[in-house]
Design a protein that fits this description.
By secondary structure, this protein is an alpha+beta fold. Helix content is 40%, strand content 19%.
Length: 282
């Protein structure tokens, strides 16, 4: 008489659970690989779009410089903004003199405090403290030489209390010049700087900006903070071109240029610095 043995029910249950775990693990692995592949495809697509957008933005900047070259020298100072069409693609180009930006190396501490208060909505006490930290940091000798001050705007990221979010909010409004009086020319200032000079009064900043865009040269700026204002000019210009990448992402290309001052130059403009940044959709 033969007795047939059967595996206990507990063993069958363990085996079933093991199989289910394996299936689940394989499912997770496949899902992860699929997501990784999609992310790589999206990144490749973004990189390709960025290359095309960079070329288009550079072309729009060159066209803008060509227009500036045809104008008198007085026409190269100040602030202007508008679309430039290149091969059917509309690119917003903004041209401004450095005299319209807030110089982090020479701006008064009170102006720096207002910059944080009105440009990035920082509480007054925090704004004052961060401005104080900047003034103390710029008084130290530079790491690249005996002079003091910041070598570039991004050096602000080393200041105590500064975060990348704060810096990205003020970055289009500042410069790091090693010479200057620290005041701002409102006729060359972008809207964000006008808002700071207007003590956060958006209506006043928008009014002055609209009048300036309309070509009015007799604009009343007496309601702005006169302590921080000085009509001046700078031969150095920043030209910013913004191109769309799709899916809400944008590429910002910035050239810093100055007149070449030599007849032997191939271009009437000398490029001092070039940068770009990509902003993804929120």
């Amino acid at each position: 008489m033969q007795i047939q043995s059967h595996p206990p029910k507990a063993s069958k249950g363990v085996a079933l659970i093991a199989v289910l775990w394996i299936v689940a693990a394989l499912g997770i692995a496949v899902t992860g690989l699929t997501k990784l592949a999609k992310d790589e495809i999206r990144q490749t697509s973004l990189d390709r779009a960025a290359i095309i957008a960079t070329a288009a933005a550079d072309a729009a900047i060159r066209l803008s410089l060509q227009d500036l070259s045809a104008k008198p020298v007085a026409g190269t100072t100040g602030f202007s903004a508008g679309p430039v069409v290149f091969e059917g693609r509309q690119i917003m180009v903004q041209i401004q003199s450095l005299s319209g930006l807030i110089d982090i190396n020479h701006a008064p501490e009170a102006l720096l405090a207002d910059l944080f208060r009105y440009a990035v909505s920082m509480p007054p006490a925090q704004s004052a403290l961060l401005a104080q930290n900047i003034v103390q940091a710029r008084a130290r000798p530079s790491t690249t030489g005996p002079r003091s001050g910041f070598d570039a705007p991004e050096d602000l990221l080393q200041v105590p209390g500064m975060t990348y979010d704060i810096y990205s909010g003020i970055q289009p409004l500042i410069t790091a010049s090693l010479s200057g009086g620290g005041r701002v020319d409102p006729m060359a200032a972008p809207w964000g700087v006008l808002l700071v000079l207007a003590n956060g009064n958006q209506g006043l900043a928008s009014k002055i900006n609209a009048e300036r865009a309309a070509g009015n040269t007799q604009i009343d700026t007496t309601q702005l903070n006169q302590t921080f204002i000085e009509r001046s000019s700078s031969r150095v210009l920043t030209i910013q071109a913004i191109a769309q990448l799709g899916d809400g992402a944008t590429l910002t290309r910035v050239w810093w240029v100055s007149p070449a001052f030599t007849g032997a130059a191939k271009s009437p403009w000398r490029v001092l610095h070039v940068s770009k940044r990509i902003s993804l959709a929120q």
